[in-house]
Specification:
The chain is α/β, with parallel strands linked by helices and 334 residues long. The chain contains eleven helices and ten strands. A six-stranded parallel sheet has the order 3-2-1-4-5-6. Strand 4, helix 7 (193-210) and strand 5 form a beta-alpha-beta unit. Helix 2 (15-37) crosses helix 3 (45-56). Its main location: membrane.
Length: 334
């Protein structure tokens, strides 16, 4: 490696690494010099380096001390040059750490992990889902993409935040879309329904275009946009409006009004949702038959995901196919 190439590499490295190399060079240099100047006091080069590190860092154990004038002059130079470098290095490392934490909270740091889940959009549903994942799958790595947040505390939410638009290539690259295993696209609550669906579909197109193998779940609010979401590349479509409307309807027209609607929510909090592949022995059977089989295990079969579409309480004669997924509600078991 030529001197020119070395200096090019040196000045392209991070500043804290450059300072560490410079400090190390000074310690080794002064350690070798003091060994040759006072070999009787510093019999090995390691002893000289030890003295240089202790002196340059201003610790000063005093176990090895130069006794000649030249040795003492070297000590003075080491304290002036090396001590300043060590102090500057520590200050730089501290400042870099603080700056990195700020960049991490503000979504400026690229994600370099693999097999992670990408969330597009920050809202109450995202918060609840992240809490559920942290409880039941604490080892899952989550990356959040959102352009409405200025910062998010990574200490409060153990996720990696990327500030930006989920439909832009540059943002998806920073989220390491190529190595992600799944993406969940939630609707923007600040937009009207039609615009929110268009935004979700655009994000779906961008994600699918950059990772053909990723599993994509899209939240769609209007029935008219379901076909477009499927064409865009969504594997699963969640229609939250239909689910919430059904809950409101049953709450409004239930026969007995002595029990508050909160009872339903309280009961659901004691259950856990599961998504299972159709057992081999149940392939070709009806949804009704499969429901009875799960009831034997005290599990409730809610619906199926068939051909990328989620069907809650489908017709009893619906035939289960090999690639279907079952949506099951089970009691929390200790």
């Amino acid at each position: 490696m030529s001197i020119h190439t070395f200096f090019q590499w040196y000045f392209r490295t991070p500043i804290f690494l450059r300072l560490l190399l410079t400090v190390s060079f000074f310690m080794v240099f002064f350690g070798m010099i003091i060994h040759f100047v006072e070999p009787h006091v510093f019999p090995t080069i390691f002893d000289g380096i030890w003295w240089a590190v202790i002196t340059g860092s201003t610790v000063g154990y005093g176990d090895l001390v130069p006794v000649t004038i030249i040795g003492k002059i070297l000590g003075v130079l080491l304290i002036i040059a090396g001590g300043g470098l060590v102090t500057f290095y520590m200050a730089t490392v501290s400042a870099s750490t603080v700056r990195y934490e700020q960049d991490l909270s503000q979504g400026k740091v690229e994600y370099r992990g693999e097999e992670h889940i990408i969330f597009v959009g920050w809202n109450e549903r995202t918060k609840q889902l992240i809490d559920m994942i942290q409880e039941f799958a604490p080892n899952e790595n989550i990356v959040l993409i959102d352009n409405t947040l200025d910062s998010i505390s990574y200490k409060q939410y153990p996720i990696h935040f990327i500030q930006g638009n989920g439909s832009e290539d540059e943002t998806l690259i920073r989220a390491n879309i190529y190595k992600a295993r799944a993406a969940i696209i939630t609707s923007d609550p600040n937009m009207v329904e039609k615009q929110a669906d268009q935004s979700s579909i655009l994000a779906t197109v961008a994600i699918r275009g950059m990772n053909n193998d990723i599993f994509i779940i899209s939240e769609i609010l209007t029935k008219e946009q379901i076909a477009n979401a499927k064409r865009a590349g969504s594997d699963t479509i969640v229609r939250s409006n239909d689910f919430m409307s059904t809950l409101f309807f049953h709450s409004l027209y239930r026969k007995g009004r002595t029990h508050p609607f909160d009872t339903l929510v309280k009961q659901l909090s004691t259950q856990q949702y599961k998504q299972l592949e159709v057992p081999t022995e149940l392939i070709g059977e009806t949804f009704l038959h499969c429901s009875f089989e799960f009831l034997k295990q005290e599990d409730l079969l809610l619906g199926i995901e068939q051909a990328g579409e989620l069907k809650i309480n489908p017709p009893a004669k619906t035939i289960l196919q090999e690639k279907d997924n079952l949506i099951v509600l089970s009691p929390l078991r200790q």
